[in-house]
Amino acid sequence: MRELLTAAQMRAIEEAAIAAGEVTGLALMERAGRGVVAAVFETWPELAPSWGPAPKPPEYLLQDDEVEQHRAVVLCGPGNNGGDGFVVARLLTEAGWDVEVFLYGDAERLPPDARVNFERWIKMGPVAPFDQAPRDLGRADLHVDALFGTGLARPLDGVLRDWVAGQAADPIVAARTVAVDVPSGICGDSGRELGQAAGAVRAGLTVSFHRLKLGHVLDRGPYQSGKTVVADIGLSDQLQAGSVKSITRQTRGLGRAARAHKYSHGHALVLSGGVGKGGAARLAARGALRVGAGAVTFGCPPAALIENAAQLNAVMLRRIADVDALNATLADCRINALCLGPGMGVSDESRGLVEAGLKSGRAIVLDADALTLIGRDASLFALLHEGCVLTPHGGEFARVFPDIAERLDAPATDGPAYSKVDATRDAAQRAECVVLFKGPDTVIAGPAGRCSINASVYERRAPWLATAGSGDVLAGFITGLLARGFSPMQAAETGAWLHTECALSFGPGLIAEDLPEELPKVYRSLDI
Question: Which helix (H) or strand (E) holds 252?
Answer without folding.
Answer: none
